[in-house]
Amino acid sequence: MSSWTAGAAAPIDAARTSSDRRHINRLGLLVGLGGITMLFAAFTSAYIVRSGGGDWAALELPPVLWMSTALIAASSLTLELARRAFQRGSLPSFRSWSAATAALGTGFLASQYAAWLSLNAAGIYLQSHPKSSFFFVLTGVHAVHLLAGVVALLALFGLAAAGRLVPGRSDAPTLTAIYWHFVGGLWIYLLAVLSLLG
Amino acid sequence: MEHEKQGFVSKYIFSFDHKMIGKQYFTLAMSMGFIGGILAVLIRLQLGFPSQPWPFLENLFPVGMASGIMTPEFYVSLFTMHGTIMVFFLLSLLPVSGFGNFLIPLQIGARDMAFPFLNMLSFWTVVPGAIIIIISFFVEGGAAASGWTAYPPLSAIRSAIPGSDAGQTLWLVGMIFFVASFTMGGLNFVVTILNLRTKGLRMMRMPLTTWAQFVVGILGLLSFPALAAGALLLTFDRSLGTSFFLPAGIFIGDTLMPHEGGTPLLWQHLFWFLGHPEVYIIMLPAMGFTSDILATFCRRPIFGYRSMVYAIMAIGTLSFLVWGHHMFVSGMSPFLGSLFVVTTLAIAIPSAVKAFNWLFTIARARIQFTSASLFGLGVVSLFVTGGLTGIFLGTNAVDIQLHDTYFVVGHFHFIMAGAGLFGAFGAVYYWYPKMFGRMLSERLGKIHFWITFVAYYAVFFPMHYLGVSGMMRRIYDPNVYEYLQPLQPVNLFITISAFVLFAGQLIFIYNYFASMRTGAPATANPWNAAGLEWSTPPHPGHGNWEGEIPPAHRWPYDYSEPGKKRDFTPQWEA
């Protein structure tokens, strides 16, 4: 009885095996992506409702957005190459491809900032009209999510440098890649909303 | 073992143990609930004794109760913050975050949640949210005053009323913390339940409490992001000059606001897309607790287990399709309104399935009247009362008459607040032995139940009559209208009953804290219950089971099987 009440317990084995743990982490990520999807679904429905207002005005999207699109597409490609290099066990190749991805992602953020500046230069600001408001909000919230991806890549890079990423055991590169591809797809979706709806 | 050496900080503060995190949520939710209760007492003080001076209160609230008389601005802040605190920080945190964390691993046979670190993080994300909400009472202009629904333009224009300024800003910041915490928690619930069930515990063998928490996790993940989106857009409207929710032509005093083109209804849609699922986020766990408690104390298998599971799923699904019934008077197309009537009344079907299944579980059973089972029966009573008035409000033709009257206040205090609260109380009485290794005082528990039950009906039942008689929901002083003056005795009766209701809760708080030290030591399974959580030691440590995790050989409701010597067969026995 006393050993029952002493609070002693077996070691935590919630992560029973590494394949269980992998499944748990991936499911957790997918469920989290479901939450992010709902966030942007809510923004989209607000966008559609608001675009019915009398003061809705068209907005010429800055051409630099095509560069954003090219950068983010390329970054998904390089991250996929990094992930495959990791699975092959080639850590140097993994490090260079993931560094390239982080650079492309940073380039994407810079091109988004350039798009904001070019709108400002044309006299269009957040509060100018409803479509410009949505443009800044949607690109801003998306950029925050992409920034989180860049941070994840840097963490991955640090783990690899510290020798704590083990090919065949660590799933972090795949998790990061799933998130990254999702955020990339999200950009294509937002571009479609901004150019096709209203 | 390693965790025995844990210091105070890692054991009690930044703990990864789901049970400790659950208890941390209890403490936070009960503290917030106590504050929310005091706000309710102040609201009733004004309605029972309109504009009467209470000089001693001036010391506590020098602005809101200057010279002892409550100002209208303070009254508006009071009901805004009462609703916010009770809905989010008591009724969501206690049954979902508190009991969800505490019970899910115990009931499914897991050592901990799937993501213990995320779990700790989600608790420590909601704490600053709660602190910010409380602090907002003490900023200039006082706390937010646009109702718990934060409708623009009142919530969107900083100069609209005193509470629209700093108070509303802090409200939004606090809510963003809450949403972040709650979605992290929901993610953890879903992944844990899908992945960490012990051997033999098929989904269709899970206790209904865990089923409810599973659906609640999904609801939270899908609905709270809509509030996050709305809160972000509202913040932009407030501070950065956008016009998402603000139309042209709004005057504050003599000043024309620069906004144009926005629509306040957009906020209502975004808010209620969260707001209605939120009602079921509160209700479903209470339904789960009630099912588990009634089966144990009726010594009967829960009636219609499968239909209970399907009803939980149906309620969860339908909860996303009914938000428009909060907006019948917003000028929506009558055709759209009729669609929302149909989906709303459709919820009555799975709800009735649950109510009838409880009644069939109770019928002809030899009920053991414990504090827990009394509160379980209380849930059934409040749920039926509140459900029936829901049919009135869910029908747009009737709702247009009753909207924003005390009928609505009575209705939701029965079904969502009351049933949710009684479910949480029942759960505390039932699972307390597992939480602290000691029993609560049954004598105090029963006194607590009867005071709460009688006073609850005394407070909220007459509100339906007030509402039908035309008393407005947010009115500061009903006596300004001649036709409401004859109702003053009813308001006085409600106020006195509310004081009794509040005082009754002090018994519970005393029982809860005193029993941690003085309660009778609990055995591992004091109620002879069949669920897996009762196979743990009386006061389980981190990891929950000392040896192997027991497998589940059956569902958790094997009571009074014919031909067996014992009147229950635990889930973990072959």
Structure explained in plain terms:
The complex is a heterodimer of chains A (198) and B (574). With 198 residues, chain A is mainly alpha-helical. In chain A, 76% of the residues lie in helices and 0% in strands. Chain A has 6 helices and no strands. In chain A, α4 runs antiparallel to α5. The model of chain A is unreliable at 1-15 (pLDDT under 50). Chain B is mostly helical and 574 residues long. Chain B contains 16 helices and 2 strands. Chain B has helices spanning 8-13, 18-48, 55-60, 72-90, 93-108, 116-135, 166-195, 208-239, 264-298, 305-318, 334-362, 371-394, 396-402, 406-436, 442-468, 488-518, and strands at 251-252, 255-256. Chain B has a two-stranded antiparallel ribbon with strand order 1-2. Chain B starts with 7 loop residues before the first helix and ends in a 56-residue tail after the last helix. The mean pLDDT of chain B is 95. At the A-B interface, α1, α2 and α5 of A face α7, α8 and α9 of B.
Distance between the termini of chain A: 70 Å
- Tell me the overall shape of chain B: globular
Give the amount of beta strand of chain B, in percent. Answer: under 5%
Structural class of chain B: mainly alpha
Strand elements of chain A, count: 0
Give the uncertain stretches of chain A in residue-range form. Answer: 1-15
State the major sheet of chain B. Answer: 2 strands, antiparallel
Mean pLDDT of chain B: 95
Question: What is the compact description of this entry?
Answer:
The complex is a heterodimer of chains A (198) and B (574). Chain A has 198 residues and is mainly α.
Record the SSE blueprint:
The complex is a heterodimer of chains A (198) and B (574).
Chain A lengths: L1 H4 L12 H34 L12 H25 L2 H31 L8 H32 L10 H25 L2
Helix pairs in contact in A: 2-5, 2-6, 3-4, 3-6, 4-5, 5-6
Chain B lengths: L7 H6 L4 H31 L6 H6 L11 H19 L2 H16 L7 H20 L30 H30 L12 H32 L11 E2 L2 E2 L7 H35 L6 H14 L15 H29 L8 H24 L1 H7 L3 H31 L5 H27 L19 H31 L56
Helix pairs in contact in B: 2-4, 2-5, 2-6, 2-16, 5-7, 5-8, 5-14, 6-7, 7-8, 8-9, 8-10, 9-11, 9-12, 9-14, 10-11, 11-12, 12-14, 12-15, 14-15, 15-16
